[in-house]
Write a structure and sequence with these properties.
Strand content: 15-25%
Number of strands: 7
Distance between the termini: 37 Å
Radius of gyration: 18 Å
Largest sheet: 5 strands, mixed
Length: about 210
Amino acid sequence: MARNLEEMFRFRAEEQSLNLTLELDETIPEHVEVDGRKLNQVLINLLGNAIKFTREGSVTLELHKAPTSEDNRVAVRFAVSDTGSGIAPRDQRRIFEPFVRTDSTPAATEGTGLGLAISKDYVGLMGGELLVESEEGLGSTFSFTLSMRIPGAEELPEPDKQGVVMGLQTGQRKFRALVVEDHNERRTLLASLLETVGFEVHAIPDGQEALEVL
């Protein structure tokens, strides 16, 4: 999953002349028991934000083992770090609230303001806590630690033979997508997925506004 995410975001990072790095602790078991959809979406949100708000430098996805005393379990610390503009101390207490968009960055008016709120909820449902460390002008790190059960060999699923969408084919014109959905969470997640692979997305909540936009 981590390597798929690295491939998924590499094109967007290169487009902005950013270095995207994956630091993966190779001692982490290859298979763990976790809600893969929620974990994947959280990391997509965090990586998408990091690339969006970083003008130069790098973005790093880290997966490292954390201490645990439980048998047949592994604790992993997930972290997404960037060298972006950082988040002001006054905003760090508010960024996980729904619809909050801070004025700490030039791109702060983009998006719906729901991605971090949803990510925090998802991490909480998986038994962790989403934290932020940031300093204005020096970047930010969003991190959380999950304790996950290590399944036995007899429990492992069949290998997934589906491919992974990494992005739009290079050399094409810019594609735009209009997302119309009155459910806030669904609208945010769909817009995030489309932005991840390179679409320019405009997301709105109702059909009348969609007709006006068109």
